[in-house]
Amino acid sequence: MTLDRAVLAFAGVMVLLSVALTWLVSPWWMLFTAFIGLNLLQSAFTGFCPAATIFKMLGVKPGTAYN
After folding, report:
1. Burial class of residue 26 in the structure, from the number of CB atoms within 10 Å of its CB (0-12 exposed, 13-18 middle, 19+ buried)
2. Would 67 be classed as within a structural domain?
3. Nearest C-alpha neighbor of 55 from the set 15, 7, 8
4. Domain contains 66
5. Contact 55, 7 (CB under 8 A)
6. CA separation (Å) from 22 to 2, 16, 33, 60?
7. Looking at the domain assignment, is residue 14 inside a domain?
8. Which of 4, 33, 35, 43 could join 49 via S-S bond, C-beta 3.0 to 4.6 A?
9. Interaxial angle between packed helices 3-24 and 50-57, expressed in degrees from 0 to 180 and rounded to the nearest 10
10. Domain range enclosing 32
């Protein structure tokens, strides 16, 4: 798995987790969903992604988007 796919998979898991927490716990978890969306947007424009940095430190091989 490349770094790009790992970041996309992680973002998907986080969105699904936030939806489940919203459904099961509290509507306030929608703020977590909004945070994820904002992080994805800033990553698209700046090229910086905290998750990519962490995955890179863990040894995930680089892809094309995050070098």
Report:
1. exposed
2. no
3. 7
4. no
5. yes
6. 30, 10, 9, 31
7. yes
8. 43
9. 120
10. 3-57
